[in-house]
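Example S7 (structure tokens).
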């Protein structure tokens, strides 16, 4: 089993991207949710049906989800048993932190993986119950990368 649970695209038009995914792959979506992180307001949505999920984020210019230059593949998301240990592990392998939600009270961080031209998101497994409640209420707990502090 893997701790991979979603792929994310940042998009300038959430409804258009949802519609295109529906038409192309027959996916079903939850209702988009507003979010706020620091000074940034954004909208987010996940597919229905369980992992791996497709996530779409529509964020403002200058935010970690800036799509003003066009839609793009942004990151792969993984649960981790320790965000701090996971960050150290990635950085020790030359995968530097690109953005952390921790200063904003959110236990996730993006790390730049230049070899794929995108980011890896580590999300602390403590956030998983809230994720499941919002996006997959009938879902079972998902595995996490077992970090060694």
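Recovered sequence:
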């Amino acid at each position: 089993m893997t701790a991979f649970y979603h792929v994310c695209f940042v998009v300038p038009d959430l409804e258009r991207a949802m519609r295109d995914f529906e038409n192309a792959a027959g996916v079903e979506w939850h209702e988009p949710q507003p979010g706020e992180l620091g000074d940034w307001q954004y909208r987010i949505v996940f597919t229905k049906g369980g992992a791996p999920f497709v996530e779409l984020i529509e964020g403002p210019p200058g935010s970690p989800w800036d799509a003003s230059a066009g839609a793009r593949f942004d990151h792969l998301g993984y649960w981790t048993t320790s965000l701090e240990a996971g960050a150290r592990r990635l950085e020790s392998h030359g995968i530097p932190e690109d953005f952390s939600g921790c200063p904003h009270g959110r236990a996730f961080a993006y790390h730049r993986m230049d070899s794929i031209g995108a980011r890896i998101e580590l999300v602390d497994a403590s956030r998983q119950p809230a994720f499941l409640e919002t996006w997959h209420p009938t879902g079972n707990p998902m595995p996490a990368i077992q970090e060694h502090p």
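Notes on this example. The chain has one domain: 4-135.
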